[in-house]
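A quick word before the example. In earlier lectures we treated sequence and structure as two separate objects. From today on, think of them as two lines of the same record. Here is DUF927 domain-containing protein written that way.
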Amino acid sequence: MAWIFYYQSTPESEWKVSEVKYKAEVLKLQPPFITALELNQEVSEGMTREELSQVSYRGPLYFDFDSEDIAYVIPPFKKFLKSLEERGVSLEQCSLYATGGRGFHVTIPMEVFIPKVTGRGFKNLPAIYKEMAWDLAVDTMDMRVYSSRRGRMFRVSNVKRTNGKFKVPITASEARIMTPELYDDITSTPRGMIEPTTPEFNSSLGTLFTTCSEKVNRNRNRNRSKLDEELIARFNNEFPPTFLSIANGENLLKDVGFQMIATQLAITTVAFGKTEQELLEACKNLVANHQSDGHRYNTESKRYKELSRMYHYMLDNPCYEFSAGGLISLLDDKTLATDLEPEVEVPEGASLEGKDEDLGLDEETTKGVFFNKSGIFREKFDNKEERWKVTRISCVGIENITKVESINEGTRQFESQGFEFEAYVDGEFKGIGTIQDNAFNTSNMLHQTLGAKYSAGVDCTDSEARAMLDIFRRKSILGGNVVISLPREGLDVVEVPDKDSESGYSLLTMYVSAGKNGVIPKNKDYNFKFQGMWNPEGEFRVNLLKAKELEDTERIRKFYDDFFDLFPKEIMARVLGYFLACFLNQIFRYHFRKFPSMQIYGQAGSGKTEVASIVSQLHTYTNTIPVLSAGSTTSFALRCYLEGSASVPVIFDEYKARELGPKRTNEFLQVARNNYTGNEGARGNIRSGSGSSTLFVDKNKNSAPLVFIGEQIEDQTAIIDRTILVNTNVGGAKNRKLTFAERSRFYRVKQGLNEGFLGMWGLLCVKAAISTPHEDFADTVNKYIVELSERCEGLTSERPIYNNAVILTGLEFGMKVLETVFGGWYSPKFQSYINEILDNIETSIPINKSEATKVIETLAYLSNSKDIVISLEEYEDYMYCIDEATGKECVDLELRSCWDKYAKYRRAQGGELLFDSESSFITAMLEHEARIRGGSASNLGSSKYIVRLDLQMLYEEFQIDTFDFSGM
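And the structure line, produced from the sequence above:
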């Protein structure tokens, strides 16, 4: 990425662009102007707001002081320098200039207010600097110089101006004694550059920079309401009548301050694309007649100055955006701002004067009920000019929460889930309120739901309560506040209607979490919001979107050095790869219809839970991912977590089949099997309403990433085939004492997790996944499937190949994301993880054994057992033989007695039987691949329940433990 700057060859010439590495050569040409900041890309006129928000800037904090008379500029300039010194800033570390006109320039190196400056720059830096300047502002400080886009041109030192003067550097001592005469003298000739002393970090300016940066970035991400955008477009860059009324000093709220008026008028002027002069012209009567609320604005010149000052502050300022509500807040209670209401199609014969006819609803529907900021009212039946207050509760910003029930031929079918709104009582904000549709069925239910919550009565009839439902819904539609609820936390793939698509829908990749601005990226066509299926705030409550930007600092790099060395490579390669792949869970499920679970097993004290809980912090910022205890988590609770996540892993700890019992074990294993393909389940349920209940089918999708942890491996074939296996016993982990260095590393990693260092990487992964085409990830998976298949020729099941391709894709994805911050510093570490999986793929993929083969393996174990109750007796239950027909070494098994002892053993161990009955076991054994058919007779007898198996095939192909033939 090449950094650039702009310059002008002459004061009137077009702006030219040059790379920063050529700046010295450009300055030798003595251009009169160059931009104060450098940019990481060229900026064109047609760039959108979103595109401009991605431009990064770097360069010193700069200030410009200017006025009609240098004598008027000097005192506030000195005052500003003194305020810097009072903050502990050394002026010798700054660059001071007399511009040769009627002012001064000051620049402060970034190192003074940023602890560790990197070359990566900052987004929105001009706006951040404007906020800092606003905090440090004095008279004559020019707020117009903090423009975004290509930036602001600053005069170059020692280049002759048209007035014959020069912009020249000055010392701090000269600045302190500056006079108009001295100014005129020192700007008459060029001067040598004054090298500032080495900059040192100043905590006061550092805090100011951090505060302003957070303010700008927080507000930059706000969504402008659809109504406000529609108003700007509707008036076609002309002032609305309400604005002109306020600018004329009419209909203002009593005792409203001039500064508040100036703020809202300036915001509106900038939003509507009007000039400073047009603002001042429109406000002539306001300026002339406003009754001052203090000495600050007690003259016309002061009021004009404040309007001008606020205009330049709002220009290119992302912290403030036009809101119709801002203008309305300046009006008295009797004034209606109908021009700022949403445009609606008015039914024939309806009126728009003052009440709820502007909702497009007739009086028969509204029952005379209407809302305003003081509460909910209805007309009196005998006198429609009089109002009756239904309740003191006011509902503002009503959102209709819906979910997409179905998409058919590009048309969405919605099911309303209720409303969300800002609740006010007697004008005082009481928080965010919610209400479901059935609460409007009767006045009593409305009072219990709404009135009781806010300690305010609701006095209406049942028909008026039902009318409010129509008003709520209509207001949400007109305000552009029909919200589609997304029920799963994390990175999700969302289907939206698309009539131009053959399928009738298109896909959006979105990150979903609770809270305001909890869904990214914003969508121009649909208003999305998270609302959990079982808990509106979600089960995980991840706060990943609050993560700060990951930077290459010494402390963060030390954290990642420790993190990658925290666990053995054999463990880290698979666990890290899996948790990185979890971000892509729904993408993989969409393209491949499956995603593996992870099974972590090992002895007590081997770090099973620790590795999962630490690496899972990729998916949150400063809070933690819950680790569910198998013993205390009900099936319903587990279902809530699995249905409530799109990419956040569900961690199920202390899985012990013996302690859970057969019923709960079977329930969990069924869930784990279905999780692989994300099968949709369905249950009958009851929907309760007002005085009635209905049956309905409750559908759910078990598609969250699943990690389960236990001391023993769950070896059911269907589970093994669907999981990534991680054995934490590598390296003799049990009971090994940590060295001091290892313990120190562990606590440093814990501290870094508390500060969200891993979540910062996670947020980068989210943004990368959103911006990357799904096909790129699918291609990477397919690439690894080919490579793994070549290394595992003869593997009968393709699932383990796919499962490992998924975690390899996760590792490659995470490596590329981390390279955007640290370059290739950690790439060798990731490559070692990738090689660990590729080089050991044949041994890491367990042999896919059938249930019958697993029983044979158990029988081989029982032949070696010393327990007389369950041990197999040679020559009674089994025996060695050489088949005369084939010449092969074999084992003969008496199936009925073998089944009896196998069943006793499994029940004693608390394990499940792999066959439901003796007959199903015998049938499977008679069909086993190792059976020798038509061989010589067995010495065990002539029973039809004797089977002869090829020992070489059992030992070599199926890797069965050896039978004990010591009695031969």
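Notice the following. The radius of gyration is 37 Å. We will return to this example when we discuss secondary structure assignment.
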